[in-house]
Amino acid sequence: MTRGFYIGRFQPFHNGHRAMVDHIVDEVDELVLGIGSADVSHTVRNPFTAGERVMMVSKAVRDVDVPTYVVPIEDIDRNAVWVSHIQSMSPSFDVAYSNNPLVVQLFEERGIEVRDSPMFDRDRLEGSDIRDRMLADDTWTDRVPDVVAEVIDEFSGVQRLRTIAKDDVSERWESGEDD
Ligand SMILES: Nc1ncnc2c1ncn2[C@@H]1O[C@H](COP(=O)(O)OP(=O)(O)OP(=O)(O)O)[C@@H](O)[C@H]1O
Ligand SMILES: NC(=O)c1ccc[n+]([C@@H]2O[C@H](COP(=O)(O)O)[C@@H](O)[C@H]2O)c1
Fold first, then answer.
1. How far is the CA of 178 from the centre of ligand 1 (A)?
2. How far is CA 124 from CA 10, 69, 96, 139, in A?
3. Which of 8, 76, 80, 83 has the greatest number of beta carbons closer than 10 A?
């Protein structure tokens, strides 16, 4: 029995992430999906909460035919213990999947096998580009699973992103200008 682990911020979960899930489930018996930066929301780079992303991801993989668990993982200040932090929050796993160089390095230093995956249609399928399209009122819903667009609509996620970006609310808060 092999259980895989795949972490991302999923802001939002898009068709490239789904393609990576499809690639992974050919190789594993069970899959854990980590919602990274679970403690971060309401910024232009990370507009959606952990709970909102749990809904997006859970619905987007519900037809996958291996058992799949969605686990929020908060960031911590010390990279050296980040993998232990994940292990304390997640079902145990045998292999991690990532295309993120820091993530690969941290897992490998802890002796965990890491497999990468091809980038799928990366010109179109990139979170930052999809968020830019939401801001510009450009077409974006064809780049995410239908259920993800529905979830984002349910909590008025695009409206939130525009408000945050327009007023730069998160940046002013982070820089202390609102204190
Ligand atoms: N189109 C894609 N095909 C395959 N893997 C992808 C694709 N886009 C992102 N990934 C991988 O999925 C993981 C999580 O990515 P992440 O949530 O940061 O998405 P992203 O599209 O890179 O978003 P952002 O632009 O917001 O950083 C990373 O390992 C990343 O390399
Ligand atoms: N020290 C830490 O908290 C630490 C280290 C490396 C990656 N991460 C997180 O892992 C996730 C990696 O996903 P991305 O590939 O989407 O960047 C992000 O949420 C990132 O913040 C956290």
1. 32
2. 15, 27, 25, 11
3. 8
Distance 172 CA to ligand 2 centre (A): 23
Q: Which fold has domain 3-173?
A: Rossmann fold (3.40.50)
Task: Please give the number of the atom of ligand 2 that sits closest to the Cα of 102.
Answer: 6
Structure confidence by residue, pLDDT tens digits, 23-57: 999 999 999 999 999 999 999 999 999 999 999 99
- Longest Cα pair distance anywhere in the chain, in angstroms? 52
Q: What is the pTM of this model?
A: 0.94
Q: Which two tokens stand for residue 146?
A: 């239908």
Q: Is 33 in the pocket of ligand 2 (CB under 6 A)?
A: no
Token pair, residue 169, equals 């609310």
Summarised one tens digit per residue, pLDDT across range 12-25 is 999 999 999 999 99
